[in-house]
Amino acid sequence: MAKASMSFWVMIQRKRWPLMVLLFLSVSTIGVILVRSSFESCKFSGQFVEEKNVYSISSSAKFRSNPLDFMKSKLVLLVSHELSLSGGPLLLMELAFLLRGVGAQVVWITNQKPLEEDEVIYSLEHKMLDRGVQVISAKGQEAIDTAIKADLIVLNTAVAGKWLDAVLKDNVVKVLPKILWWIHEMRGHYFKPDLVKHLPFVAGAMIDSYATAEYWKNRTQARLGIKMPKTYVVHLGNSKELMEVAEDSVAKRVLREHVRESLGVRNEDLLLGIINSVSRGKGQDLFLRAFHESLEIIKEKKLLVPAMHAVVVGSDMSRQTKFETELRNFVKEKKLDNYVHFVNKTLTVAPYIAAIDVLVQNSQARGECFGRITIEAMAFKLPVLGTAAGGTMEIVVHGRTGLLHSAGKEGVTPLAKNLVELAMQVELRQTMGKNGYERVKEMFLEHHMSHRIASVLREVLQHAKARALR
Fold first, then answer.
1. Rounded CA gap, 208 and 141, in Å?
2. Distances (CA, A) of 6 to 2, 3, 262, 350
3. What domains appear along the chain, each with residue ranges and CATH number?
4. Please, are residues 77 and 105 in contact by the beta-carbon 8 Å criterion?
5. Alpha-carbon distances of 35 from 27, 84, 442, rounded to whole Å
6. Which pLDDT band holds residue 47 (cuts at 50, 70, 90)?
7. What pTM value is reported for the model?
8. CDD domains recorded for this chain (predicted)?
9. What are phi and psi of 402, to 5 degrees?
């Protein structure tokens, strides 16, 4: 992959396409998307703060100014449970860059760091330092002083709650009124008192989908007997940079040709992609079973379809987990070595979105909290085959922008049939892709997401100020 990447850079330099350089300097779903944005407002309705209708205002003049300007000179402390290439930490980094862009003073804390030096952490920390984000130790007096002085504290993920008692101790009560808790998790094991006992007392919770917000509301009440604070649902959005690439036919073609050549996939072949960190919860194993089953259906019915390939983006060969070993053993057992391709975790997933024809979002159990890769794929006019669970159901319109199947083993055969259906009908793929792109333009752009975040931050600051005057 290193050799292929180097040859691609040579090609870019020869072509002198600034847009392509921008793509590889920016970060997509598994990386940091630098959102420079405008925003749309929120209103409170019932338990959750809901999004206003954004269908008619995407080109409105109100998006020309940056509504985060009110954060200028504010001191913001961002607390992440870890620093990795997973969605939660990188979304918090995105917020850090947003705030730095308007002149806020931003301080970053990573609560859990390995004792030995980690290349990913080193790279991401220096990316932040280069953008003016201050990185300090999670423990010690500096962390305590910063928390007390901060105008706003953002705790990222439920696990970050461990930091409060471990570090702030007697000062926890002082800072709770200015905490915004950004929650991305959908797993039951996060509902533990040592993690979220302070949750009812913070200024607010920000959650990526209504499905996740409802789950947290019910689960905290049933398991812990606590009530959620004021909860804001903020759907994510695609960055301007990603949309520029997605709408540039030349850029997409070059990316598509390069990736397919590196994988050994012809242009006329049908390439199915699943882009998530490889883990059982993301359903790569069930996807591969469905892929194999789809090939059996095609063979049995003697259907005329393009040669089909599958690419799994998000592996970590350095760890070679038991689950990854299972995936590779299945591929060898079914003699799929020439048709299934594994790609390591990468900061640049957009080339793989450009290269595939169909995105499979196969997250299991309660599904994805939101699934940013889904809206990124839709921006590239790709149909999405997703599990009928979690935030995916708030993005994908079944039969219009993609097809949904049930999670679990019972979803394998329906997914296989959906794969065959899209393989047989190129016009259906194109229509769904076009519909998905239009849905992104209506609902999932950076100014839709960013304005909602700004509205949340403004309310949290007002809450903190009101409590300080009491």
1. 33
2. 6, 5, 12, 17
3. 31-237+449-468 (3.40.50.2000), 240-444 (3.40.50.2000)
4. no
5. 10, 19, 18
6. low
7. 0.84
8. GT4_PimA-like
9. 170, -165
